[in-house]
């Protein structure tokens, strides 16, 4: 019975989750799914948004969290600028509202635009949730390998 329950609990993670890498700083999310991707490298389709959904646990009481995205290409890391409506985590957590309390488990739905003119390259993208006041306080972070591809004809 117990074994059966565990199996049932694991199946959604395999179907909807993607393996990700931990960051050097900040705890990993509890789970992550990327629409259209079940293993790395994830395809980032030009002209489309890539949809991420992840569950994380709030590290400490906080008024507002921001999303930061860093892309590493050929060993060179640069910040991927997100418009503020994408980067304000409080607007991407459904009906929950900031401020957030320590220990809360929050699901974030994040949509990252992949612009038409991006070069067709392989890269690593690292996504962090940081405090607005102090970006060195990281509540959650993961990274994955990805590649920019053309849409299927
Ligand atoms: C963030 O900064 C504001 C303004 O400096 C301050 O009032 C607030 O207490 C800070 N919040 C945290 C969680 O440190
Ligand atoms: C940000 O947080 C770190 C870690 O808690 C702390 O060492 C640092 O002094 C803080 N920086 C600011 C500007 O508050």
TrEMBL record:
Gene3D superfamilies (UniProt xref): 2.60.40.770
Pfam family, one: E1_DerP2_DerF2
One of the GO biological process terms: sterol transport
Record's keyword terms, sorted: Secreted, Signal
SMART domains for this protein: ML
Gene Ontology CC, one term: extracellular region
GO molecular function, a single term: sterol binding
Main location: secreted
Subcellular location: Secreted
InterPro entries linked to this entry: Ig_E-set (IPR014756), ML_dom (IPR003172), NPC2-like (IPR039670)
Annotated MD-2-related lipid-recognition domain residues: 20-146
Signal sequence bounds: 1-17
Protein origin, superkingdom: Eukaryota
Family statement: Belongs to the NPC2 family.
Descriptive protein name: Putative ml domain salivary peptide
